[in-house]
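[Q] Does anyone have a clean structure-token version of this?
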Amino acid sequence: MVVMLTYVAICFIVKPTNVTLRVNETKVCKNSSISFTCKAKANPEVHSYQLHVNGVNSTDENSNGSWTKTMSHEGKYRYSCVANNSVGHEESSTVIVTVIAPVTIADMKKHHSVIEGRNLTLECVVAGSSPNVTWTHINSSKIKKGKTWNITKITIQEHGGYICEASNFCGLDRKGTYVDVECNLNTEFTFMIREKNSKLTAKLNDDNSKEFRNKDEEFKNKIKKVIPECHKHVVHKIELSMRDVDL
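[A] Here you go.
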């Protein structure tokens, strides 16, 4: 008796499955390069892969499923890939890629001159994606967050250098300016004549001030100066100095 055995090979022909898109970076700086890799299972084998951007075929089709792209524009992009064989095609899930523009600060005025008591606005014009911006006053180390620093009734102590610094994921930029605060000679100051225990008030630039008229060296040596160094001023040949006079 002869037994005949017949083997039947069953071959399953299917369209691509398990399509995946891998990206080496999902957050990059503008003009950086990203690598994309698309993989899938299929029978017969995949003969081509396509890369889609924001739901649109980017016309980048190849047989190995690999791409390298230079990201030249900031923003968020939705990438997916499609695997094709003779049976059909299948698309991967979406991968979000964020492209960030580095921060840059526009050239600013190098020097500001303002009279004390007046207002001053320092403006930092910044370009780039979601920048963090701060101003720093070098003399006092005081920090102000934001692109604008509004200084009201500026004082002598607020003179000096100011630095604007902007930063984000891609780095930082900084620029500076210098503020010169000029004395306001219209400001009124009070002087104490200690031996008489009385107060004298006068405007430093008031040439007709009776209080300063005909005052001599003895008067100068009997007052305690309470004004900043920058207010040294000669009124009718009387120089007001920083030192305290012991009577």
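[Q] Thanks! Anything notable?
[A] The radius of gyration is 38 Å.
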